[in-house]
Amino acid sequence: AKAKAKAKDKKEFEAWCKDVLEKSAYLVEGVKDPLAMGPEFRNYDFTGTLRPAFVTPQVTVPPHIPKPDYADTSVPVSEQAARGKQVVDVHTGDEEEGMRLAGRLGREVLDVAARFLRVGVTGDEIDRVVHAAALERNCYPSPLNYYKFPKSVCVSPNEVICHGIPDMRPVADGDIINLDVTVYVQYKDKYYHGDLNETFLCGQCDEESVKLVKCAFDCLKAGCDMIKPGTMYRDLGGAITHVAAAHNCSVVKGYCGHGIGTLFHTAPNVPHYKKNKAVGIMRPGHTFTIEPMINLGARWEDTSWPDNWTAVTRDGKRSAQFEHTFLVTETGVEILTARQGRPRTEMVWDLDYIKRP
Predict the structure, then answer these.
(1) For 253-263, what is the mean pLDDT?
(2) Closest residue by Cα to residue 156 from 178, 182, 123, 127
(3) pTM of the model
(4) Could you tell me the sign of the dihedral formed by the alpha carbons of 202, 208, 214, 219, in that order?
(5) What Cα–Cα distance (Å) separates residue 312 from each residue in 161, 289, 295, 345?
């Protein structure tokens, strides 16, 4: 029997990963210098110690996999048409079930990536594993070709705030690595995205990094704890900022949570900082992400690498993040991307879960 990515047996999982990497090995054949950065980085003044490495060619998706409208053109036309809309979609019945499916499958794919993650593997290998795990579940990996993002997952180490492009740099001992997964799946006659991310401690991490990652988790938990009908979206930022400041950390202002459903990004806009002007009040049936990006120290500012995607801290210090897709229920919240076997109404810290060898 073919080994499945979600199989619990260690040998079976390792065999599946080996098979995935062997079948996609053509992507790295002939690469002379895996650590070579692209010409766009020539003379670039990096803010921290991380350096980009070689990025392998973009892969394709088989015809039987349902594709969002940007899969071939890179332009999310339906998302652009809805831009500026402030009315939040209310999901009911089958739509809620579609979002539950997208959330569950997104979680499965992230868990596969987390299980594969360890010191020594490359971002490129993580991407190949994520791509295969998504296809195995009849999902399209939503980041792929979204506004020309070249890969199926975001891999963001250390000072990278978000949108790191998986490359051939191996994960180093002491790295913190954020893995951001979104999948697009069909349920009955509609299609839905499920979006989540987690930051992992790889090898022997210093105490400061462990505290930062815990703070990022606590910031998302502070937002999660407020989700119920009647909560104003703009109020989440104050609670998140309070937690960050108490741990000598800061909240990135340049990137926000967002509505999600048949569109990857839509209303509402969900800022994570205090005194924001977000519009809207939570109602049962709303689905959205909260994904606070938390920087070590007092500086929240970000800047972008010349690859037009990778966001890094302005001062080169580390940044961590957690994200869930949430559904507002009549009584509170359902975490659609909750860890398997864990509560779906509250977040519980588990240090062992995010530690990787």
Answers:
(1) 98
(2) 178
(3) 0.97
(4) negative
(5) 5, 21, 10, 32
